[in-house]
């Protein structure tokens, strides 16, 4: 139970950070998560909290890297293969040499192997953390891509180099030839194992998509298990499990491109699950870092002030060396392949991007995992300087996060969209209202039109924005009265006079008079409460007097009453005939009211007026018509799939027309197209689930 509670608290911390972050936008989410983790360390359940490093790599890092691989198209990786090697191997080795040189010149007296081990630990970068810091800022596109490509593979470089360093420390020596061979075997072997196993999994999933009875129930769990299985097999064979899951992610991206229009629902669900899962896992990493901070600071007290200051200075010097190394590497590179990412050499743009690239060398999940993975003992003896290495690695993470969170917002401009949120809301409302007008004017049944219009209205809540509410007195009530006058005129039309008798028309006209003439009074909660109390009082008095409390007692009383009052039978028969006639007239009037609302909606759109009052008037009218027809029970209406397709088609045409007229920007059009696609996919998925 304690494990489940710990998992729940870790996930809860990520949720809490997402709630807090909008209120402190200048503070990166990673730092908020670290603070929450530090606060959680006070809880008794986290006293002495430790996590096994192998499980950390297996349960957290492996799925994160698998998703990173899935998010990068195979063609992009193939196109930039040379650049990836430069960023994730050459730059990583260059940075590691600089860190080792800095460490060697500090009075730490660490063995060379452990110096290399620390350098390997701090080599991996965290592009996800950088994204959270640059949210809302204009990070150059090419630079962003370089950070993602670097982070995708330099994790494995750090892991392999750490293994080499520990092996060097254990054996006391390591030949360059065997080291290079080991590096190639572990890295290339991991890529090959991951690719081959993933191809088998992809082939199995493709077969299940075409032949399984319930493809979703098998392919989705299979996809979720893939990184864990491949990681275990690759590690068992002595190759890099991290590189294996990255390769598997790339192969699965290829599968997605081949099955874009097959098993669409499975792919959408799987993508959503992976995005959500990896977001939570990335957050948990920083919560765990926060949990570890009190213990690390407590350990630092054992080294005294001088020892602690030396470790802090070493961490700062390592970070500065890595920044300068990244800056110089980008500045001095003359390879034409890097121009796309960093701009032309010896230009201001190259220098600016070099500085941003250096600051974006933020460290996070993998660095923490590698620091935690250091063995407590080697050759049966405690690993020397273990605490110091873990402290320095943690301080490097914190320094890189703190510096980037301050410097990047100062160097980057705020992101300016091609359209404002107000423009998006305005055009979105026009788009939805256009579709609703087309729905109201269609020949579909009222119940279908009503359900479809209500569904379209929910699109106005996109991105959590509340639907504007019209003022009842100034916007809704005048329109209700106008519709009331138009319905009265409709009662005098030739269509009504020819199809309904005078008695039915007179009865229904009185109903309209009472039901719509003063909706403000009928809507008032106090008036409604008093009306219900009077009705309840009358019913209690009647049932007490006649002693009719059950259904059988009421039926028996009615039969006896009709026997003693035969004249009432004709009255009841006439009433039933009139009721059915009134219901027929009510249905006819309801259809006409739909046309009226469509007309008023179009009129307000042309005038550029707010249309929120139309939806409120529609609700008032629907309630009125339901009361007249005694339709008190909610009946689920199934809207045909073709009705949804037609409605969304009207929205597509609206956006296309506005783009052709250049009334909206292409970026705004793309956003609306994206929202329509999402809404259409969701509705069709719901219809499929209902039909199943």
TrEMBL record:
Compartment(s): Cell membrane
Superkingdom: Bacteria
Transmembrane annotation, as ranges: 32-62, 83-104, 110-130, 180-208, 228-251, 272-297, 303-324, 354-374, 389-412
Keyword Transmembrane: yes
InterPro entries in the record: Cation/H_exchanger_CPA1 (IPR018422), Cation/H_exchanger_TM (IPR006153)
Cation/H+ exchanger transmembrane domain sequence ranges: 11-414
Primary residence: membrane
Alphabetized Pfam families for the sequence: Na_H_Exchanger (PF00999)
Membrane topology: Multi-pass membrane protein
Keywords assigned by UniProt, alphabetized: Cell membrane, Ion transport, Membrane, Sodium, Sodium transport, Transmembrane, Transmembrane helix, Transport
Signal sequence segment: none
Presence of the UniProt keyword Mitochondrion in the record: no
Official protein name in the record: NhaP-type Na+/H+ or K+/H+ antiporter (NhaP)
